[in-house]
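User: Working on a comparison across species. This one is NAD-dependent epimerase/dehydratase domain-containing protein from marine sediment metagenome. Can you predict its structure so I can line it up against the others?
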Amino acid sequence: MAKLVTGGSGFIGSYLVRELVRRGEEVVVFDWSRGGRISDIEDRIKVAQGDISDWSQVMNAVKENHVDCIYHLAAMLSLPSEANPWASFRVNVLGSMNILEAARLFDVNTVVFASSMATYGLGIEKPVITDTTLQRPTT
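Assistant: Here's the predicted structure for NAD-dependent epimerase/dehydratase domain-containing protein from marine sediment metagenome:
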């Protein structure tokens, strides 16, 4: 069974992909861009180039690769989102819905969603962020 990493060629995603490969996992990267930070390991992974907001592309990536775990890191960050709210909605909301629906339809055991430090806002008083840390998003 494969591990699907959305946004796997991004900054955080590329580190996750490398760690999964190091552990011997079968890794499928689903991303709109190809190469970049993971071009040197493309011979050890499968890259499914696609648009997270396209329902059929997401469904096909999950079904065809027999995915049992999805790491959902595909996202449009704050500044680009503010400049283009519609694109942000398509990627961040519709894309997440597509991932959750694919997981439901194809009995994916695990979905891991990576959020953002921005959800905690400014002025965090604790040195370590836990599940109980109060969130005060600024965006």
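For your comparison, note: The chain is about 35% helix and 20% strand.

User: Helpful, thanks.
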